[in-house]
Write a structure and sequence with these properties.
By secondary structure, the chain is mainly alpha-helical. It has helices at residues 2-8, 12-16, 19-40, 46-61, 70-78. The mean pLDDT is 78.
Length: 86
């Protein structure tokens, strides 16, 4: 979800939409799905899942793509993504 919403900032039409809607939408979409996945699929406790959800939601909400930066690389490595293609 982070990759999808973070890369939406690269689409000019997405940036044109009023940021008062897009920033909260990105945050809520990524934070909500991350929390659900961490709790249900990974078995994290509430606090750990919430911390991860808030962090990734904040990263997705900044109005530029983060995944192409060193911060994005560190996040991808943290989550174990070793390569982008199959």
């Amino acid at each position: 979800m982070l990759l999808v919403f973070d890369n939406l900032w690269m689409i000019p039409e997405f940036v044109v939409v009023d940021w008062i809607f897009t920033v909260p939408l990105c945050f809520l979409s990524v934070a909500g799905s991350t929390y659900w996945i961490q709790r249900r699929r990974q078995g994290d406790v509430h606090g750990t899942a919430l911390w991860k959800a808030l962090l990734l939601g904040a990263v997705a909400a900044v109005p530029f793509s983060v995944t192409g930066t060193p911060v994005g690389l560190a996040l991808l490595a943290w989550f174990g993504i070793k390569k982008m293609t199959d």
